[in-house]
Amino acid sequence: MGVVISVANQKGGVGKTTLTLNLGHALAKLGKKVLLVDIDPQFNLTFALIGMDVINYADKNVGTLMTRESSIEDVIIRVKENLDLIPSHLTLSAKEIEILNSYNRERRLEKALKPVFPDYDYIIIDNPPSMGIFLVNSLTASDYVLIPLELSYFGVIGMQLMFNLMTMIKEETNDNLRLLGIVPNKFTKQTKVPQMRLKELKELYPDAPILPTIPKAIAIEKAQAEGKSIFEYEPDGKASKAFEKLAKEVISIVE
After folding, report:
1. Region at 184 (left for phi over 0; alpha for psi -120 to 50; beta for the rest)
2. Strand partners, 145
3. Which of 12, 16, 187, 249 is the most exposed place for a label (fewest CB within 10 A)?
4. Which residues contact residue 231 at a Cβ distance below 8 angstroms, ignoring those fewer than 6 apart?
5. Are the C-beta atoms of 72 and 115 separated by less than 8 Å?
6. Do 26 and 124 meet the contact criterion of CB atoms below 8 Å apart?
């Protein structure tokens, strides 16, 4: 039975898509069967994985899946060995009102994914940077939340918003939701500020697991710009090693 992980943070620009993309590749590389789900109307994960082919999925994407216009079998794209994708599309925003007005709207994604739970070891969902029906659906369908965090002052303080949302979801739609951990992203040891913020993070949220850090690396940005994972772009670099370490940590916690 697949473990469902939401990569989520209500703050934008923290690296949710980069984390989803490269963690998915890392788990697949370690022999795990992985399904990535792009539920962000900006469809950055989809574009990173299939490029301009995204235009061909207007009637076969996560939005049409949630409105029951498509079946789960119709929307899954094979990316590579052990790695599949349910794409987003530029029409996803238009589906929001339809989903908001539908019966049992918080569970649309959960019910849609349920048939393929046995087919995957990990289902990882990339979320929009906002509190809305897509994020609620994602958290309702998930076993765990993985929170990428850029170690700025407002980023650390703003974590409380994410924890408040998780508490609400646990009370209303998914009492099994758990925090997998916080991933300090774009981390650098060249200045003292990130290390100071990391110390503050541990003091503010002592019960939150802090997972391996992902370094600030130009290679990550270049890889994504070329539609590649960091493993395809720079397999022996420090960023690749960091994502592999994170994947092994995730496996050790979950399994």
Report:
1. beta
2. 6, 179
3. 12
4. 22, 25, 26, 29, 240, 243
5. yes
6. no
Contact 16, 129 (CB under 8 A): yes
- High-pLDDT (> 70) share of the chain, %: 98
pLDDT bracket for residue 96 (50, 70, 90): confident
- Separation of alpha carbons 35 and 114, rounded Å: 13
Euclidean distance between CA atoms 66 and 141, whole angstroms: 12
Q: Residue 137 has which token pair?
A: 């659906």
Q: Which of 2, 53, 45, 51 is nearest to 25 (CA)?
A: 45
Q: What are phi and psi of 59, to 5 degrees?
A: -110, 15
SS (H, E, C) 84-103: EEECCCCCHHHHHHHHHCCC
Place of tokens 């900006």: 42
- Three-state secondary structure call for residue 144: strand
Hey, CA dihedral for 185, 191, 195, 200, is it positive or negative? negative
Q: Is the pLDDT of residue 189 over 70?
A: no
pTM of this structure: 0.94
Rounded to whole angstroms, the Cα distance separating 88 from 61 reads: 5
Residue 87 Cα distances to 97, 178, 215, angstroms: 19, 25, 27
pLDDT reported for residue 190: 60
How far CA 34 is from CA of 3, 64, 67, 211, 255, in Å, comes to 10, 21, 24, 20, 15
